[in-house]
Amino acid sequence: EAEKAIAEVVGEQPRDTTVLRGVSFAVPQGSRTALVGPSGAGKSTVLALIERFYDPTEGVIRMAGVDIRALDRTELRSRIGYVEQDAPVLAGTLRDNLLLGTPGASDEQCIEVLRRVNLSAVLDRTEAGLDAQVGEDGVMLSGGERQRLAIARALLAAPPILLLDESTSSLDGVNEQLMRDAIDAVAHNRTLIVIAHRLSTVIDSDQIVVLEHGQVIGTGTHTELVRDV
Ligand code: ADP
Ligand code: ADP
């Protein structure tokens, strides 16, 4: 069913719109890449192509040398996690929300990932612990908490590659630090590609890819890019 829905969405793409042109960059295993650029530059589209939400009309995306179109989507998505911006909270318990991609995880593992993304306080806000209802009829989570919950979910699923869209997260100082810690927690032993909104994410990255009007206008470390301006 999901495959069919995706196929329909892909089929509906207007064919005369070129969103990305000549975009090329390499992401070393275990590194952290930040995608930056103005709204509409094509950053989300790059992530969508990497996890095959769309396929490119031209060009190839390779993972460990293999054209990702040679992998079926289930196989691809077991290796690539995607944390979207404004990640939704499902109506249900905290545990339900964490176990989406990883039904077998234990309570201990759930509590551990919540700790690593600084969400232990949510457990303390209620007597029910992991059985606490969250979402519309339960404990309300802030925007920052919702995104950290999505990161906790990705931590449990532990994909080797993680795509993270923080493009709309405007966080205050405290939440900024919490998010930074959460990203550090997922970055460990993992390849991370982040649509970066916050300077700290950009500075902490091994590589920054600057997009504008669907094209790469700069690639390098923060130091290199600042020097070249
Ligand atoms: P960013 O993430 O950098 O804000 P997007 O990747 O969302 O940019 O969008 C890049 C461009 O592609 C924009 O001009 C946007 O209007 C266009 N676009 C995004 N999604 C679609 C779509 N499904 N069909 C056609 N054009 C799209
Ligand atoms: P808007 O740009 O108005 O926020 P959407 O919410 O429809 O529009 O989607 C935003 C962008 O996120 C789209 O351009 C699309 O390319 C991308 N996108 C949607 N779903 C996925 C997905 N599952 N994986 C990666 N990118 C996605």
From TrEMBL:
<protein>
    <submittedName>
        <fullName>ATP-binding cassette subfamily B protein</fullName>
    </submittedName>
</protein>
<comment type="similarity">
    <text>Belongs to the ABC transporter superfamily. Lipid exporter (TC 3.A.1.106) family.</text>
</comment>
<feature type="domain" description="ABC transporter">
    <location>
        <begin position="1"/>
        <end position="229"/>
    </location>
</feature>
